[in-house]
Specification:
By secondary structure, the protein is mainly alpha-helical. Helices cover about 75% and strands about 0% of the residues. The chain contains nine helices and no strands. The longest helix is centred in the last third of the chain and has 28 residues.
Length: about 160
Amino acid sequence: MTGKVFPLVLSYNGRRHLEDIVQAGRKKTAPYSLRQTLEMIPISVRNLREPLNIILEESAKVADLMRDKSFEEFSCDPATYEQVVSCIQRIDEAAHGIPTIVRVKYALLPWKEIAALKAEFMAADAHLRPRVVWKISTEALPRIRPLVASLIEEIEK
């Protein structure tokens, strides 16, 4: 072997990867904890307030529609069923509009559960959908509603 030197040609990603390797060799310390970093990130209150209010309003509509109804009454009333399903769909859309940084900062809310409401009843068989919608509207939404209300109050402070 002769002592030929070949130039190292790297793509942009390769250069970034090489820089990361070099940086990893140096001692790096994070100046802030994750909590401090999250507190420093500005969150647009106006953009956040809208989807949270939609979640709160639609869950209130579902609570009003389901008040004093048994499962048999609910399953025999197609108009109420369709209204509840449309409310759940709007809650799902609003939950997907909340930025990830907010989901991380306010991790006490069950964001995955809120975002999966629509998928839960869409995945159910047609004969089981009323039971799934009943479960969502009587168990999941009443549990989520006070948490969203307290989050709105905290944001507006």
